[in-house]
Amino acid sequence: MHIAVVGSGYVGLVTGACLADFGMDVTCVDKDERKINMLKEGRIPIYEPGLDTLVAKNEKSGRLHFTTELKEAIEKSLAIFIAVGTPPREDGSADLTYVVEVAQAIADHMNGYKVVVTKSTVPIGTGQLIEKVIKDRNSKQPFSVVSNPEFLREGSAIGDFMRPDRVVIGARDPQAIAIMKDIYAPLYLIETPFVITNVESSELIKYASNAFLATKITYINEVAGLCELLGADVHHVAKGMGLDRRIGPKFLHPGPGYGGSCFPKDTQALVDIARQAGRPFDIVETVVKVNERVKLRVADKIRAACGGSVKGLTIGVLGVSFKPETDDMREAAAIPVLSALASEGSALRIFDPAAMENARDVLPAGVTYCADEYDAAAGADCLVILTEWNQFRSLDLERLRAAVARPLVVDLRNVYEPEKMHEAGFEYECVGRAAKDLPHA
Fold it and tell me: Is the pLDDT of residue 435 over 80?
């Protein structure tokens, strides 16, 4: 089967490479010539573990192709996946400009029956919009519109695609559903659950899922703040909660707030969707507001640990990407936190295993970009752990102690145990783990 994937960003490239690995003949299309040339040369424009190997394997086999020629890709493909960006507007709503442009191109170049699949995260009603755009421009050729949302976590996207929790297919046309099942036949064989529904339900599943996970993260961050006031340990609280199978342990890890390309954008979009429908989504609106407060509290925690002011101090920072195993800086907590510290007169020394180049575009001027974690710690009055990369989990504490000017660590991901850090001679601040015991009644 010939498949076109329009958009060779994070979702499009992972989708295209994985579908090619399923045995499909896949053409990835992007109007960015530089990106396409990089891919043709075997260079991957994003950081995702294992993606370079998967792309090279399937490109060598002749199943994966890259082009800027959308017309040719549409004409030879039965299924066309739309995986372009849907960035947020100022009011939080999703900008569907690129989606509409692709739909118009499909209408202009259809030469037979096509299955048009939205892989991009799009508001409810986008399937109907795509259908109208195509029909208005081309009423002669048959087509079906399908919603097939992605559930890819940055850093583990290939595993998520190859071994997903579920495959969601939103369609009304039995023929389109049959084609989608054929595309995902390798997952059916390993007994992956398939959710077959209408387009609107499929579109909402994606937003509802991400908003729920964002709510869970924000909830445990609020619990962590309460733990610090009451003398409780958020790790014990989270474990006690997570062992309840109705709650589960995932996404109960306190930190500096959620970020990335999905949760901030999708929560804001869901708020806008609900408002447009005349039914405000109060819970998600609150989650969005609280998450921003969490990031501000992080800056307060660093400031307090330093004695109330960071002016004139050197702050070492380990990790700036929004999560480990990605170079994505979109909505990363590092941006507001480090901007606040820089504006107050601190000197910042940072190291991240993957996100250094992207960080240069979004972090304040004057930041020193370091060679490794110990270089970032050199002469630091405070060392901040912002992202829990594995290589930060077993630092040489003696070497670290010798590198810093003051042995103060603010661990915003709770990578270390307080007792171990105190024994190594560090002042240690973390999240939701109060040093005092609960008072006796």
Answer: no
Question: What is the three-class DSSP state of 153?
Answer: coil
CB 122 within 8 A of CB 96: yes
Give this prediction's pTM.
0.91
Rounded Cα distance, 236 and 252, in Å:
11
Q: What top-level class would CATH report for the domain 2-197?
A: alpha beta
**Token representation of residue 4:** 């076109």
Enter the tokens of residue 317.
């920072």
Backbone angles phi, psi at 164, to 5 degrees: -75, 160
Looking at the chain, the domain(s) classified CATH 3.40.50.720 span 2-197, 211-429
Distance CA 57, CA 367 (A): 39
Residue at 19: amino acid letter: L
β-bridge partners, 29: 6, 67
> What was the pLDDT predicted at 261?
87
Three-state secondary-structure class, residue 134? helix
What's the half-sphere exposure (Cβ side, CA atoms, 13 Å) at 34? Answer: 1
DSSP per position, 270-308: HHHHHHHTT---HHHHHHHHHHHHHHHHHHHHHHHHTTS
Type and span of the H or E element at 348: strand 347-351
CA distance 161 to 429: 38
∠ CA 130-37-1, nearest 5°, is: 50
With a cut of 80, say whether residue 115 has pLDDT above it: yes
Q: Which helix (H) or strand (E) holds 157?
A: helix 157-162
Nearest in space to 166 (alpha carbons), one of 182, 176, 152: 152
Q: Catalytic: 262?
A: yes
Q: Into which CATH architecture does domain 211-429 fall?
A: 3-Layer(aba) Sandwich (3.40)
Comparing CA positions, the residue from 185, 103, 187, 105 lying closest to residue 145 is 103
* Distance between CA atoms of residues 288 and 290, nearest Å: 6
Catalytic site residue from 262, 370, 382, 430: 262
Exposure class string for 379-391: b at 16+ Cβ within 10 A, else e: ebbbbbbbbbbee
Mean pLDDT of all residues in 302-316:
97
The single residue listed with the structure tokens 């000017």 is 405
Q: For residue range 384-393, what is the model confidence (pLDDT) as tens digits?
A: 999 999 999 9
Nearest CA-CA partner of 47 in 341, 416, 337, 359: 359
